[in-house]
């Protein structure tokens, strides 16, 4: 799969994220990954590869987290929010 994604990006068959591309992950059943498991409800913003620090991500006082996806050639910014999709309060997020 990784080779197919890389080839499609190289041939420009898969476009980069559009400016303002975002999604929200608000379900209590959401599963982020094997390391984080069921994470906090959050918004995700997708940008072309960029240095997360220029957006203030991943610093102790910032509510913004970032992940650099070199395969997808993008940086993903995640911002925890205070409520789940059912309206119940989310746990307090500790950076």
Quick overview of this protein structure:
The chain contains 1 helix and 4 strands.
What does this protein structure show overall?
This protein has 95 residues and is mostly beta strands. It has a domain of 65 residues. The protein contains 1 helix and 4 strands, in the order αββββ. A 4-stranded antiparallel beta sheet has the order 1-2-4-3, with no helix packed on it. The termini are far apart. 7% of the residues are buried. The mean pLDDT is 88.
Element layout with pairings:
Elements: H1 2-10, E1 22-25, E2 42-48, E3 65-69, E4 74-80
Antiparallel strand pairs: 1-2, 2-4, 3-4
Number of E-type strands: 4
Strand count, sense and barrel status of the largest sheet are: 4 strands, antiparallel
Strand content: 15-25%
Helix proportion: under 10%
The H-and-E topology, N to C, reads as HEEEE
Globular, elongated, flat, extended or rod-shaped: what is the shape? globular
Structure class:
mainly beta
Features of the shown structure:
95 residues, four-stranded antiparallel β-sheet, 4 strands, 24% strand, mainly beta
